[in-house]
Structure formats: structure tokens, C-alpha cells
Amino acid sequence: MKTHEIILLQGAQSDLLSIYSLLGERAYTKVDKALGILRVFPSAGPIHFGENIRRLVVSKTPLGIFYTVTGHRVLIAAVLDLRQSPESIQTRLRSL
Length: 96
Description:
The chain is α+β, with helices and mostly antiparallel strands.
């Protein structure tokens, strides 16, 4: 089975550090499992914003992984708490 390379962009790395400090290891582990799913099934998340930004909701958490797929790479742009306003999320994603 072909796998894709996961690349965390700088904003996503910062998001993960915040998640670990605010929500703990359990949430961080669930995000890691979701990234493993994207490694094998990069189109698992539906297109959510614009023409190519996808969102995968992390199971049993309030988190969403926002990413794009380019060839054999999955570029993780942000890992955000979905309980914030949609406008805040869109503002963050526009800066990508």
C-alpha cells in the first residue's frame, strides 16, 4: 500500500504544541492517529475551504486537521479547535 509523506507546516507545528499543553497527551495522541490515517488515505477529509483545503475531524476531540494534498505529500496547514467561530477559522486559513 502506497503511503504519503506528512509535512507539518510551521503553523501546524505551533498548533500541536498548543494542543499538547492545553488538552494533554490524550488529544495529542488522537491527532497523531489521524495523521496516520492521512498518510494512507489522504483524501479522507472532504474539501472544506476554497478549492483544495481539506478538513479531517479528529475523532472524540473538538479538533480538525486542515491540509492539502500535493502529489505524494500531505501538507498539514493547521490543527484547530472547531468550537471557535467559522469566521476565525476562515481567517486563519486565508493566510495560507
